[in-house]
Amino acid sequence: MTTKTTERQTWSSKLTYIMTVAGATVGFGATWRFPYLVGENGGGAYVLLFCVAMILIGIPMILVENVIGRRLRVNSIDAFGDKLQDKNISKYWKIIGYMGLLGAFGIMAYYMVLGGWVINYIISLLTGTLDISMPITKDTAKAFYDSSIGNSPMQIALYTFSFVAINYFILAKGIIGGIERSVKYLMPLLFIFLIGMVIRNVTLPGAMEGIIYYLKPDFSKITAKLFIMVLGQVFFALSLGFGVLITLSSYLSKEENLVQTAIITGFTNTIIAVLAGFMIFPSLFSFGIAPNAGPTLVFQSLPIVFSHLWAGTFFAIIFFSLLLIAALTTSLTIYEVIITALQEKLKMRRSKAIALTLGFIFVFGNIPSILGDNIWSNIRLSGKSIFDAFDFVSGNILFLLTALGCAIFVGFVLKDKAKEELSDSPNSTFTNIWFNYVKYVVPVIIIVIFLSNLL
To answer: pTM here?
Structure first.
């Protein structure tokens, strides 16, 4: 363990670490999933609960994974090992790390396909295959979606492979030279695109109706079931439960303030998710389009909106480019969880670990997800397509079980060591409140979310 720790690289600065973590947590969860869930579940009520949930479960769990990751500064499997007071930690705790890797495979199996969808829209807008220079109808938007995504598996496979190739090129340059350096440029670009789209859409005629829907909570819609659903979305939005934050914090200097970085991470993710809503809902209401379209909101409803805008094609390209950047900053870090584990557990060369990880997921995850909506549409797993099954198992089972294991590991195994890792003042009021909250309250919250997802 000692050798690995001394040789391990560290982030060049706190800012680059925070930007990388922000990139890891700001993906389709904030830009695709959050807006459509808001639209399906009462607008402002969902937004309010999301902000509360970020404080109740998001930031405490970020700290849990940061403590586990930085303690030994190793991969997300061995992070659950070593000794405490000269007594070995049971090797069975490493099952949590393996579960996280399995969850990472599950999400990447369909996540990269979504990236292929986004590239498909960008290319189609650039070539005029999707012509929104004049207003289009709901039927036109749906027909394009069905023909270019649902019924074009070879085309989507090609675009998905292109997205995988972009990831490969960056990952090959290493955690610092590749991921950190790329995020330095990608995150500011994402913010510029996001702010530009928000300004454009909130100034549309009739946009205020969408803003009111988005920000004004209808308290009658706030139920226990909705709150549990929102708590689950926080796990997805923050990339909790599949080793990302454990892996990224393993490259973090021992001098860095974990509490400060966790708060900034949670705040940044919330801000970007909320801004994504400002980018979408004012424009929907401006043109009288229902906000409750579900997962197809971005891919079927928004092209209609852009077709009504001046320079709509340009703004649509900017919007989908924003989605692609957000997806890329997340996919890089999820891939890295598996790559780092292969390098350190199997002593594998980085180039081989990258090729094996990306190639395996593409063949056994991405391709089945693509074919699951057409050629293999008759294959159903508990009534779900292959694409949806990967989403359900990773997001509703594996991530939550891994997160539960992390909280129990910190509370009942690491104990005082966790408090010492978190703060230079392990007996401070804040540290003790966090520790006891993680030990006794967080596991109960996760179990409630887990059971509600299965019922």
So the answer is: 0.90
